[in-house]
Amino acid sequence: MSAAPEASPKPPRRSQEKTALMTAVDYLARQAHSEKKLREKLARKDFSEEEIDDAIARLIERHYLDDTKLCTEQFMYLYDEGRSSVRQICAKLMQRGFDHDLVWSVVPEDTYDREVAAAERVLSMKFKTTDKHQKMMANLYQKGFSVDVAHAAVQNFTQCAVKPRSLGLGI
Question: In which element (H, E) is residue 103 found?
Answer without folding.
Answer: helix 100-105
